[in-house]
Amino acid sequence: MFKKLNRFEEVFLITTLALMVALIFGQVVGRYVFQSAPSWTEEATRYIHIFQVWIGAGYAVKLREHIRITAFVDLFKGNIRKILDMISTLIWFILVLLVAIFGTQLVMTTFNHEQVASGTQIPFWIPYLAVPLGAFSMSIRLIQQMFEIYKKDYNAGGEAA
User: Fold this and answer.
1) Per residue in 95-119, pLDDT tens?
2) Disulfide: which of 30, 58, 80, 155 matches 37 by Cβ 3.0-4.6 Å?
């Protein structure tokens, strides 16, 4: 399951990046060559980027590429270090879970109001869907990290890399 999630995230991020480049290039060509460019491309690019950021955040958790301040935790070794790593990951997980819950409420509220974007006529709930999807992806990755921390032997000089 995790390999499929990894592959989906990679393909999604690469495909949406290529799509964004194509849309922006089309916008520039339309604006400077034809003196007229479709307005929907800017809005579509913005919404694609929102999805990239949220799905990419989950992928960054998997790669452990999020910024962490470890000056305090680095002072400790062994089981104390393990406990501190577990606590910090658990706090992060709770925050992400709250984002997922409130993001889902935002999607549902927007869905019920039936608002649409002016340029693309896309219902607003679709771009907002990126928030709970990204938070769900991050929460899965953080659960994985908590299992890794639990299994790791910190007394053997290990860090939670």
Assistant:
1) 999 999 999 999 999 999 988 888 8
2) 30
> Which residues does residue 123 pair with via DSSP β-bridges, in sequence order?
116
pTM: 0.81
Q: Where are the alpha helices (DSSP H) in 1-156?
A: 2-32, 40-63, 78-113, 125-128, 130-151
Give the 3-state secondary structure of residue 157. Answer: coil
Burial class of residue 58 in the structure, from the number of CB atoms within 10 Å of its CB (0-12 exposed, 13-18 middle, 19+ buried): buried
Name the residue among 62, 66, 56 with its Cα closest to residue 11: 56
DSSP letter assigned to residue 82: H
pLDDT in tens, 10-64: 999 999 999 999 999 989 988 888 888 888 888 899 999 999 999 999 999 988 8
Nearest one of 132, 129, 92, 96 to 111, comparing CA atoms: 129
Residue type, 96: V
CA gap 55, 120 in Å, rounded: 22
Q: In whole angstroms, give the CA distance from residue 20 to residue 14.
A: 10
